[in-house]
Amino acid sequence: MNKYIVIICCLFFYSSALTETSVTSSVQIVNTKYIGIYDTENNQFIFRGIPYAKPPIGELRWKSPVPLSKDPKVINAQSFKPACMQDEYTTVWYQDVAELFGNPRKVFQHVDAVSEDCLYLNIWTDSLDQTSKKPVMVWVHGGADTGGWSYEPNYLGHHLASKDVVVVSINYRLNIFGFFAHPEMSNQTGNFGLEDEIMALQWVKDHIAAFGGDPENITYFGESAGGAHVSYLIASPKGKGLFKKGIIQSGAYNLFNWTSKDDAEELGLKTQTVLNAPDLQTMKTLSAESILSASIGLNHPYGPNIDGALIPNNLTKLFDEGSFNNVDLMIGSNKNEDYMYIDESVTEKDINRLVENYYPDDRDKILSLLDLEDPRLAMDHLTTNQVTLCPSVFIARSMAKKGNNVYQYHFTRMREGSEKILSYHGAEIPYVFNTHDQWLPTNKDDQELTEVMVGYWVEFAKKGTPNSKKYPTWLKFSKDEYYQILDIPIESASDIEKDFCAIIINEMRQRSSLK
Fold it and tell me: Which amino acids are annotated catalytic?
C-alpha cells in the first residue's frame, strides 16, 4: 500500500477545520490551493516545490525576486522542483566524502535537474491546524554560493518535523545567477540569492500558519554558505523581523574576506568580456548554460558583495558596532573544517609563508600555537581558526555583549573510519537532521549524539535555549565564553582557542577598517 495520500491545503486565516484530506475556511487571503502528500508512515504532511516568487528568467534574470501574482491557482506540490543552475560542485563534495570513508564515488549522484526556474521551498509538518502554532525551522543550504539544493539527502526534514516543529527548506539563486553585479544594473544589489532568501522568509511568515506553524517563532538556520547567509540577514536591515532565532553552522567565514560593490562590478565586466557580449541586455538573452559555462571558466568567483543596502558594510564592522537585528543565536564550527581540502604534500614552509603573509607581527606567537610535526594537521588548525572558528567567537562575543542569548558549540565527533577526513566541514549536518547516509559508518555513539543534537536544535527553535531536562546543560556563552563540545560524552568548556583568536580577531578588525 502506498504510504502517501494526496492532500489539498488552502491558505486561509481566522478559522480552519481539518478533515481527513483537506483544510477549509470561510475567509481566503490567497486564492491558491496547494496539493501535497500525506506520509502515512511518518504521519506527516509534505509539500514539495512550492513557488515563493516568479521564475527569475528572461527579463527577470539578474533582478530582485518578484512576488507571485494573486490570481486563483492550483499548485501541485507533490514532487521536488529543479535545483538552481549549477555544475557538479556539491555532488563532487559528497563523492569526496564518500570516497574518503572507503565507498565508491557512485554512491552519490548529481541532482536530476537544474534550471533558472528554481525559486521553490518545501514543507514538512504533522499538522495543518492554524491553532497549532508550532515553531518553524527554515533551512538554507550551503555550497560555497556555487551549488547545493534544498532537498539534498542530508536536508530532508521528516525527522525534525516529528519533534513538534514545522520544517521548511528553500532554494535560492546561485553563483553567477544569484550573485552578479554590473555597472549597467540600476537599483540592483547584485545579491539576488540573498534577496531570494528574504522573499522566501517573508512567504513563510505570511503563510506558514496554514501549515501549522507560528509566524512569530521562526528560526533561520544554515551551514557553510547557508550559515554565512544567516549572518548576513542578522546584520541586514532587510532581515529585521523575519526570524527570531538564527543558527550559524560553520558559516562565519565571510567576516575574514568580503567583496566590495566595485570589485563585484569589475567581475561583471570581466564576465561580459568572456561571454563576448556588447552589453548587459545581450547577456540576458544568452542561454543559462552558456552563462554557467562562463562562471565555471572563471572558477566561480561570484558571491555576496557590500551593496550598501542589503549589506550596509563588511560584517566585522557591523557586528563590532552592534549593527545587527535582535535575535537569539546558536553558532559553532567543526574541529577539522579544512583538513579534507589540504593537500598531503603541504610543508612547514607553506605554513610559515601563510602566517608571514597574514600575521607578520604575530608570526612567532602563532607558530608556537601550532604542532608543526604534522604540517597538514597544523595547516588545518591554522585555517580552521582563521576562517571559521575565531570569526564565530567574534560574532558570539558581539551579540552576547548586546544582551542577545548566545550559545556556542564545537563539533569534534569523528566517525569510525574517518582517519582521512577527521571532523570535517559539514560533518554535523546528519546529526542535526538525523539523516545519516547509508554509506556513512554510524554506531551507537553516533545515534546517541544525534538524539542529543536534534534535541538541542529543536529546543532552541522552540524557546531560544537548547536546554531541557533530558540532555546535558548547555551554558550560555556569556562573559565566560562557554561552549558545548558536541561529541560523546558531551562536555562544556570555555575560552576556545583564546590566544589564537585574540590575534585573528585583531587582524579582522584591522582589515575591516581598511575597506
Answer: 224
